[in-house]
Amino acid sequence: xxxxxxxxxxxxxxxxxxxxxxxxxxxxxxxxxxxxxxxxxxxxxxxxxxxxxxxxxxxxxxxxxxxxxxxxxxxxxxxxxxxxxxxxxxxxxxxxxxxxxxxxxxxxxxxxxxxxxxxxxxxxxxxxxxxxxxxxxxxxxxxxxxxxxxxxxxxxxxxxxxxxxxxxxxxxxxxxxxxxxxxxxxxxxxxxxxxxxxxxxxxxxxxxxxxxxxxxxxxxxxxxxxxxxxxxxx
Amino acid sequence: xxxxxxxxxxxxxxxxxxxxxxxxxxxxxxxxxxxxxxxxxxxxxxxxxxxxxxxxxxxxxxxxxxxxxxxxxxxxxxxxxxxxxxxxxxxxxxxxxxxxxxxxxxxxxxxxxxxxxxxxxxxxxxxxxxxxxxxxxxxxxxxxxxxxxxxxxxxxxxxxxxxxxxxxxxxxxxxxxxxxxxxxxxxxxxxxxxxxxxxxxxxxxxxxxxxxxxxxxxxxxxxxxxxxxxxxxx
DNA sequence: TAGTGGTCTAGACCACGCA
DNA sequence: GCGTGGTCTAGACCACTAC
Lengths: 234, 234
Hints:
homodimer; DNA-binding
């Protein structure tokens, strides 16, 4: 049995976003235009667009159109940055330092990123502040085969997802977080000025693009003094 | 400007679930029956039901009907228990001990539960195992004015949300989690057999019913050895 | 004013679960 | 076979945005 029409339409639209037929920040064709082109009714296109909007893969604005989302810093913050104050107040991370280098893939990351053990991986290590104090160290690992990067030298844009989208037309569509508690390793403790072995949050994140491909994995350590990972369950 | 019809219908249906007109585990009237009764088209009822289904407030089953969800143990696990293994494997908590008592509301909880400081609150302290080892201690706080409980004595059902729904017709509709890392307090360390001050996850949860009222707040400590809090962001 | 998405309706047919 | 929700269509009108 074939998939329902509106899901077929959905996949077509996702493919067009993934391949660059539609461009981030730009409107998609109108519902009627898509319906005419794809030989379905406008209601079916609407249903496909509604499912995409529910997954934050498009943004609908009455009177304006349906837009492919742009990976702005604001969007990354709102959608993917989950750290807040104890009362839910939103926090803004401020970059302190950043270091790009290449390393052989550690065993526990190689399988996650589907590369051979010891294959070269790019590692971005950065320290950021929350509430004017250093609070997090992150290691971001990417496969240079998917996302080439200046291994040394050229500065990196503030929001990485913006870079992925602009330079490589890779849009982050979904992230899986795994949150645990651990004792701060020495390099983390030193970077964010806390005692070694102090309790810290460790957030492991796998980020996937529109085609479902894993494009980045990161390990973020957070000092959780009046700060925590917030999420709503329904 | 009035709210759209389908949102008005949505609120009516929520109210009927909250007041017991619809019963957990039972089907709602069919789309056509509701449409006829509420003087709207079947399509409008469908849209209202779709938004409810998206929030897990009803369950739709083709050929059977649309059901008000029952707060079963399985459902509580699947929907609200976020702890998994490092590879995402789901874990099942096994009760080890449970203790019900009454305490004056601590300051930091009184405001959250909207009761006076030192007003009597019921506290359920329980210890549970994951993978056959004690792994979590939880303190669950409720206002006896909302959810009366046998302060001492009578045993409690395994799944608390089941009890809320069966005995008081209160369905949990939404939960807000705030996850941080902390050093294990003495009573936690002792209960789950880890060294005092070992890093543990602390999950603070506020749970709301169908009317948006906060009915429970809990603080859960987890030993995160190969275990973590998992969530997908879109 | 023109064009977009948002709401609402009406009706047809399909897929599923059960008696 | 019957009743349920699921899909698909067609068309009308509203609300918002830009020009």
